[in-house]
Specification:
The chain has about 230 residues and is an all-alpha fold. About 80% of the residues lie in helices and about 0% in strands. It is built from 10 helices and no strands.
């Protein structure tokens, strides 16, 4: 793994740990502090990505994949936590790399919420899906992302992690009672929703994962993108 990529992932993990610590230890202004920390988390990736000399074809491909990830969430809105958005982000990151995965994940959240409703939860969704894409991209050349079983395991795990991060937003933004009791109560209540997300990731990755990765990689090679 390249040193800049290692640095980016270390910074993100550090800031997220700081976010959790702020939530647990601070009794005032934790919502504002958490949003500031998440904004700072975005910056290294966006600055690094903006320095890349992207062609119009590369920008179009990112926009299309981000739009597919976003729009695919809308028809499943009536089924809580069941949607192919995470699947699209993962396969796109495997084919295009970590920075593209992060951008597609963030784009999917903000675009889909144009239809489903924007709110203070949007940055948290951007962060969650962005990090899912980033990590999938960082692991793109490992057995985890190059084998069906590895992708399924990853999809299942991130289904729960996404829900846990969104639970954190709800606790500090709505409930505003950061005690271990409230954490345990709310996290246990969301288990079935998180399980539904995890299983839907497994379903889409199992049925469509290899085909989508081949299509995106073929398109990437044909037009010489992201080289």
């Amino acid at each position: 793994m390249e040193r800049p990529k290692k640095l980016l992932i270390v910074i993100s993990i550090f800031l997220f740990v700081l976010l959790v610590a702020t939530t647990l230890l601070s009794n005032e202004h934790y919502l504002i502090l958490s949003l500031v920390i998440m904004f700072v988390t975005f910056m290294p990736f966006m600055i690094r990505f903006s320095k890349k000399k992207l062609t119009s074809r590369e920008l179009v491909l990112l926009a299309i994949l981000g739009s597919i990830a976003a729009i695919s969430r809308v028809p499943f809105a009536s089924l809580p936590s069941v949607q192919p958005t995470t699947f699209v982000i993962i396969v796109a990151a495997i084919a295009l790399g970590p920075q593209s995965g992060f951008v597609i994940g963030g784009l999917a959240a903000i675009v889909s919420n144009l239809f489903l409703g924007q709110g203070p939860w949007t940055p948290w969704q951007m962060y969650s899906w962005g990090m899912i894409g980033l990590v999938a991209g960082l692991l793109q050349h490992t057995w985890i992302m190059r084998t069906g079983l590895g992708r399924i395991i990853y999809g299942f795990i991130v289904g729960f992690l996404f829900g846990w991060i969104m639970n954190l937003w709800f606790i500090i933004g709505v409930i505003q009672e950061t005690t271990w009791q409230s954490f345990l109560l709310y996290y246990s209540a969301s288990f079935y929703f998180d399980l539904a997300h995890a299983l839907s990731n497994v379903f889409f990755l199992l049925l469509f994962g290899p085909a989508w990765i081949k299509i995106i990689e073929r398109f990437k090679r044909k037009y010489g993108l992201f080289e």
